[in-house]
């Protein structure tokens, strides 16, 4: 069986320090209320309580769940783990050999805003040879039963020292392989964030890094707060630790089903090339009828090859 894998080419040493703000998680955030200490257009929602009597998703259930690994093979294929492992046979040299193992690191948190704790797990896939292709899998709680929703490829034999779920976003601190790294020894720290869309896709929502000299290279959004309730018009503000090329960031705005509404560019006020700087983007989409959980992302692209150098996003609720 021939399998062709596309591994990402990584050009920068990335940090594990960004994309780590504490947020409140909600299902459908409430409408603004009087007496809040926040500005009139922004309200921090409260954490919904799980429905009474709903069983919790357990580690044992995750280690014996069924996982769809279509992303690896390009065609429908599911495997059911037994105590965290699956193997199609005992001979790794067999043409259709497949082994899947679940890592010990598990994160619990609400991924679909229903008040129930879902999970993020790490799956390693081996099809013979030395490669162990590592994925992060999002698993929803269906009344306590595990339902694998989506996976995203990380790297061949990366290190993942931390995994968490915050405000509906999977956060992974990783060390990945650079173009010149031997497979034994990844050297590039990268902090990644993903959100689940359409119950079938993990979308990159944060990527933080370092310059070659080790300084943080990040986009850090400050307002509005993630998952805050806002009303049009509102302004998204943030900082860059390293000024982008020609002080220009790209931005995109998405609907709750991850449909692109609009995009463009925004300038930072970095006084010199590479200096820190601030930026802001007024958002007014009331005439377009864009409501619900709206995502606004800001990206710095590499001028060399168009790769993402750093990215941050905010998810807000527009009633």
Number of strands: 19
Give the end-to-end Cα distance, rounded to a whole number of Å.
51 Å
Structural class: mainly beta
Basic shape: globular
Order of helices and strands: HEHEEEEEEEEEEEEEEEEEE
Question: Low-confidence parts lasting 5 or more residues at pLDDT below 50?
Answer: 1-18, 20-46
Structure description:
Strands 8, 9, 10, 11, 12, 15, 16, 18 and 19 form a 9-stranded antiparallel beta sheet that branches. A 5-stranded antiparallel beta sheet has the order 3-4-5-6-7. A 3-stranded antiparallel beta sheet has the order 13-14-17, with no helix packed on it. It has helices at 59-63, 70-73, and strands at residues 66-68, 78-80, 85-87, 99-109, 118-126, 133-142, 145-156, 159-166, 169-176, 188-197, 201-210, 216-217, 219-223, 234-240, 248-254, 260-267, 277-283, 292-301, 308-318. It is globular, with a radius of gyration of 21 Å. It is mainly β.
């Amino acid at each position: 069986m021939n399998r062709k894998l596309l591994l990402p080419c990584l050009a920068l040493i990335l940090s594990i320090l960004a994309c780590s703000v504490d947020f409140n998680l909600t299902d459908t955030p409430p409408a603004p209320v009087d007496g809040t200490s926040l500005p009139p257009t922004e309200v921090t929602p409260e954490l919904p309580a799980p429905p009474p009597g709903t069983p919790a998703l357990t580690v044992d259930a995750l280690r014996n769940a069924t996982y769809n690994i279509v992303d690896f093979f390009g065609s429908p294929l599911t495997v059911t783990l037994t105590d965290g492992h699956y193997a199609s046979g005992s001979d790794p040299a067999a043409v259709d050999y497949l082994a899947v193992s679940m890592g010990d690191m598990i994160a619990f948190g609400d991924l679909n805003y229903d008040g129930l704790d879902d999970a993020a797990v790490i799956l390693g896939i081996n099809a013979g040879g030395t490669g162990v292709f590592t994925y992060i899998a999002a698993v929803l709680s269906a009344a306590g039963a595990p339902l694998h929703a989506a996976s995203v490829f990380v790297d061949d034999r990366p290190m993942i020292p931390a995994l968490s779920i915050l405000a509906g976003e999977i956060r992974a601190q990783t060390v990945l392989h650079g173009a010149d790294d031997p497979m034994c020894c990844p050297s590039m720290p990268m902090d990644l964030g993903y959100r689940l869309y359409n119950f079938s896709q993990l979308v990159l929502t944060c990527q933080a890094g370092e310059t070659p000299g080790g300084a943080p290279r990040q986009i850090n959004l400050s307002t509005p707060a993630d998952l805050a309730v806002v009303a049009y018009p509102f302004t998204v503000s943030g900082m860059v630790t390293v000024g982008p090329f020609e002080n220009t960031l790209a931005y995109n705005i998405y609907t709750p089903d991850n449909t692109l509404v609009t995009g463009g560019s925004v300038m930072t006020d970095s006084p010199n090339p590479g200096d820190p700087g601030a930026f802001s983007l007024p958002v007014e989409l009331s005439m377009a009828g864009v409501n619900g959980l709206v995502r606004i992302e800001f990206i710095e692209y590499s001028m060399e090859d168009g790769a993402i150098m750093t990215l941050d996003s905010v998810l807000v609720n527009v009633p």
